[in-house]
Amino acid sequence: MRCDCGQIEHVPYGVTWVCPECDRRWNTNQIPADEYWGIMREMRDERVKVMVVAVVIAVAFAIYAMTQGARAWMLAPVVLAGWSLLYMPRWRRKLRIKTRNLPRWQLHPE
User: How far apart are CA 105 and CA 51, in angstroms?
Assistant: First the structure.
């Protein structure tokens, strides 16, 4: 939250904040609850998706390692590199684009 006087504070949803510089009161309940919680749900779903993909890859690799033995571990750096160099940058880019396109609310002091 940015006060008109220039003071900046990170305020959780549903909290009223009093600016220490100018004593204005800002209430984050002015943000529509359904929009806010919809965004929070969407962001949580994105994090859950990436965790599910990680678990699926880990389980598939574990099954492969059990069937192929020790030589499967030579494939581990390739799997980890693919994850960190291919999948995660795309996922972060997609999430950044979604975040930039989120609605912005103009709150007014009480």
Answer: 30
